[in-house]
Amino acid sequence: MINTLGSFSAIVIVLWLLLSVLFAILYPLIKGFLFALHPRFGSALLLAYWMGPFILSVLSTSFLFVPELERVLVDAHCHEACANHVPLIDSVGLASFGLAVGGLVLLFLAVRCVQTLLQSRQLKTQFRAFARHCGAYHLLAAPTPLVFTLGWWRPKIYLSEGLSAACSDEDLSIILLHEQAHQERRDNLRLLLARLSSAILSNSLAKHIMSDLQLLTEQACDFRAAERFGHVAVAQTLLKVKRLMSLPSATSVEVCTAFAERDVEMRIKALLKAQCRVALRPWQVAALASAMLMSLTLLISPLHHGSEWVITLLSSDNVHIH
Amino acid sequence: MTKRRSSSNVLPNTLGELELGVMEALWDAPHLDAKAICDVMPQFRKPNLSTMQSTLERLYRKGMVDREKRGHAYHYFACVSRANLLARMMGEVIHLLHDGRLETILSSFVNVAADIDQASLAELEALIAMKKQELEGRDD
Lengths: 322, 140
Known about the structure:
The complex is a heterodimer.
Chain A: H1 2-36, H2 39-64, H3 67-73, E1 88-89, H4 92-130, E2 131-134, E3 137-140, E4 147-150, E5 156-160, H5 161-166, H6 169-185, H7 187-197, H8 203-229, H9 231-246, H10 248-251, H11 263-272, H12 282-314, E6 319-320
Parallel strand pairs in A: 3-5
Antiparallel strand pairs in A: 1-6, 2-3, 4-5
Chain B: H1 17-28, H2 34-40, H3 49-61, E1 65-70, E2 73-78, H4 82-99, E3 106-108, H5 118-139
Antiparallel strand pairs in B: 1-2
């Protein structure tokens, strides 16, 4: 049992790490394509791409451990006896090490998840105590111009009186439509899943993709608001709110220019060139899904041989045939 | 020795549900002792006296309430107003957004912490005006 669990865990972790690095390196090649799509599709595809290494590693390793699938998915080969087999580590020490590493990674993910959940609950409790429920949103009696959506599964919109007072009715409707889009799409949950899926990578490797995912997510919500009010009106509101928040008295935050981000600029430019963004057709989505499925099945054979080769290398003569 | 704040406390001025309830009670009626606060708490969150005393002690240490001794009991009053506490919390949220520590918890309409200079804002304004003109020209 420990050999099976240890081998499974070691293969998942190594594969997850390798695929994550590979996907991060290959990302610049597909970035242009993603940003040419309508942000609704761009953000969904980028999320799928970024979660790909984790999903692929878990699924392909699970398939790898079904001996019946070997006949279909793995090139015919024999070790001591010609029978269906899975790559197993025979050394208990090595298998225990694999299991321990897998357990630690799982523990780290669970701790991170619980910690974020607690923080989210805490913020919700705090703001709920101060907010007044006004239909679709909660109003905060504060002069700081701020609006945000808080929560994962049933997110709530919080709007400050400062922002409400400074905006026209149309601006306010655009802002609320944008935030409602976050609510419906459960964007905080999507970002959490993306962050957890890339937890095995260093922050420097993951941060560009994460910030692009955030940008595409915001653009998707901008475009949703633009469906009703028009792209120019949403761009104007964005600029207005950004100007409000850039006032030194508005946020009392010393903003360091080294952290200067161009997200608002990119969002406004995207809105003004909305006609250049194309939507994916159903057949294209089906083709992408088929390509994913095919790559998953094609991965099994090299993964099987690769795992056997690595296990043999680590513990010579320890590959166990079942 | 200062007790280390739990890593799950995302805001420095984080208050628990009971602490917030106590603050509410003190904002409504200042200068109450622990027993009186217990009495004014809603039934569903009414704690026992010793829980209330330790909650008040925590709030006192956090600098949220002050107290004065009257007879044998301490009488408490809030030293942070409701508006002030909310303003602090909003400031902390903005700081955390800047650090990227809330990216998976909270989505804000615009990145409040991202800097953009006035020249870029003016350039964007000009772009929007141009687009508007272009659309109006097309309509005519």
